[in-house]
Amino acid sequence: MATRTVALDEEAYEMLRRSKKSTESFSEAVKRLARPRQPLSEFAGIWSDLNAKERRELKRIYSALREGDQRRAERVRLAWG
Question: Is residue 43 part of a domain?
Answer without folding.
Answer: no
